[in-house]
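Deviations from the work plan: none for this task. Representative record:
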Amino acid sequence: MKDILRGAAIILIVSAILLFVNAKLNEGGGSAGKNSITVYNWGEYIDPDLLKQFTKETGIKVIYETFDSNEGMMGKIEQGGTAYDITMPSEYMIEMMKEKDLLLPIDYSKVPNVKNIDPYFLDLPFDPSNQYSLPYFWGTVGIAYNPTLLEGQTFERWDDLWDPSLTQDVILVDSARETIGMGLNSLGFSLNSTDVDQLRQATDKLKALSPNVKAVIGDEVTPLMINGEAAVSLTWSGQAADMMYENEDIDYVVPEEGSNLWFDNMVIPRTSKNIDGAHAFINFMLDAEVAAQNADYVGYSTPNLAALDLMDPEVTQDERFYPNEETRSHLEVYRNLGLEMLGVYNELFLEFKMDMK
Amino acid sequence: MNNKPLRPLYTVPYATWIILFVIAPIALIVYYSFLDLTGNFTFENYKNFFTSVYLKLTLSSFWYAFLITFFSLLFAYPTAYFLTKTKHKHLWLLLIIIPSWINLLLKTYAFIGLFGLYGPINALLEVMGIGEQQILFTDFSFVFVSVYIFIPFMILPIFNALDKLNPALIDASRDLGANAWTTFRRVVWPLTINGVKSGIQVVFIPALSLFMITRLIAGNKVITLGTAIEQQFLVTQNWGMGSTIAVFLILFMFIIMLITNGKEKGASNNGKTK
Amino acid sequence: MEKLNKLPKIYLTAVFIILYAPIFYLIFYSFNSGGGMSNFESFTLEHYAAVFEDTRLLVILINTIIVALLSALISTAIGVLGAIAILFMRNKAMRNAVLSLNNILIVSPDVIIGASFLILFTMIGVKLGFASVLISHIAFSIPIVVIMVLPKLQEMSPTLIDAALDLGATKRDVLTRVIIPFIKPGILAGFFLALTYSLDDFAVTFFVTGNGFSTLSVEIYSMARAGITLTINALSGLIFLITVVLVIGYYMISRKAKSPLAGVRK
């Protein structure tokens, strides 16, 4: 018994020491309120130097937390108990959050830098007049592939994935809207289809793809493509950029039938405690130099026109990540289809997953 | 065994925990299981569960949980046994647990690298002349990695049971003419059955709702009830259906507990069947 | 002490190799100047340097350790008391019911635990942050402590307690000088597994944290979308090294203090 008590005492002492160390490292306490903002963002989605720069320029301290899924983030904000001032939902989530009244409108008198944003990315259906959100990063959904692992197949159309010579070569994304969406696109239907008949056709077509499907996974597709485990994958452009950075053989293409145009936008949740600080942050991120530096760090496509002028033309003129007018005309932005329809998509997706072998 | 005056002291913290963190959440889950997407009362979720999709999922979950538990037991038992015979057994035991403290996602990425087509394992297979194999996204790798994760949980209780085993009993059994297998079957195994039961509980039950591994290692070619729950709770926001599946998971667990606890008297009978 | 012959040694060595393979793989690539866990380019210590420069990561690491240690300690205490209480239950049906209740958190997927705890906390009004995370970790670790301690309790002969009482032990003595020493392996097993549960947890922590408090697991999972940096490999390598050193060091110290074991030994 004595040694157990001794062990317990050691643990308590060590914990106390660590708590002290942490307090020192934290310096200045961490509760939200005056002169600090809490930013809730995806992991590795901002240049940490910019946070320090923001604090230097404005005197506002930044408390930073990360999340790995839109739904998890919304669930937390909806439940209450948090005080995030800024978060970066994807476009369909913004619609959902608007409907649940979780967002505060943006006061544009405090965000003059909005003039830097490419108007093509403003006033989109998921947030008309950008009442609640401003674009942060954007991209497309397409096909990433490694020609050195293939026998000359190319991917101009979604149907090319159904090529029988691609047995067990294709990786799909573990997300109903992207995968079923691809099925819809390949049949010429809209990504926002609510027609059960079309959805059924798309699912059946996907089931026909099964022999080619190696796996249906999430973010881990990036290291898998990099080390050649798979030759082809359905991917977001940002991830493709990451893959291509590490493995020069990989290429990315947006099929011509059409695809998804996605956005991650900055919003101010209703639970914000420092609304002025939040606006200052948004304005800061929209500054041309800041946006350029952020785009360089994160590697995704920036919606900031002024920033593009400051960036390496090799990057900004790469049509795979900054597609031209023609490709853009085929891209669709997700609408929020409502929970019931979302359920239908997911049931069909589950059916497809169970059918695989 | 009548320590009545001390009992209230034992029970207060534990009882509080049960009420706040077990009963309250169950009540919440059961409550949600009767709600549909719009918050109205319905039996729809329960009806839905008895469709082929969910029944298939249940079968699949049980099958894989069984496989994982079986192989964990198969490999853990000898490990625990040999460990008790080493000189620094507690040190080795701790060294076995330490890998489980490294983050799971990170280890999974390591497995993706290890099992990859161009990874070291396949390189070894090539050198040995067997040739490249597709290891990732197969049943094999799924069960392998799951066993990898669960094995410390199986080793520890079995080790504890074996450690206290009086070696004189084994000697006596051998002296009386029993061979190694009979000694194991009628002396060692029954005396360690409690440890084995603990191990089985701590592996089988969580294995029913595995979710992360099914995606990371099996590429969703293996689907369990956990996959469905994750989807319902996070993606489709259908807490009703998600809770219903959880209710069934809990029911299954109760049934398993009933079955395994029926053998409670095993130890004192020393395995003698009557 | 039976000397180990070849087969057991080979078997154990194989087990250890398999257990440590991913760890060594991770650590190997933590020295990679390339960006990921494939294509080793050249040897570098830059990721290790990056660990120490990233104050936020260090704070998160320390948070993780504190929560793990404290939650394991407290849940072990509560779990041991709970297991003893269960053992002394005379009504078999009640006992089975409580045992089943005990396992509910183990069978429930983390998402559900996280979501229901979050609702609980917001209903009671507990602020999300260190406190809510600590309480949650204690809560989901208790079942495993109970499961590890119970077999040892069941092994205990009831006459042991009667004998102690006959010899004049107080009730408290029975607890601290008879029961607890007997079940010590179970207590330790429970403690270390509780540590594992806490260090590994992502979903529950994710749901109940707030106020900038984060653990290593949450951080790593959040990084998956953009790619887990090798800084994490370096950090894990350091953690691993320090843990091994501590374990071996502690073992050496406690061996010197232990008296030679008595009893039948082979």
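Chain A touches chain B at residues 69, 71-72, 75, 168, 171, 174-176, 214-218, 220, 223-224, 227-229, 339-340, 342-343, 346-347, 350-351, 353-354, 356-357 (CB under 8 Å).
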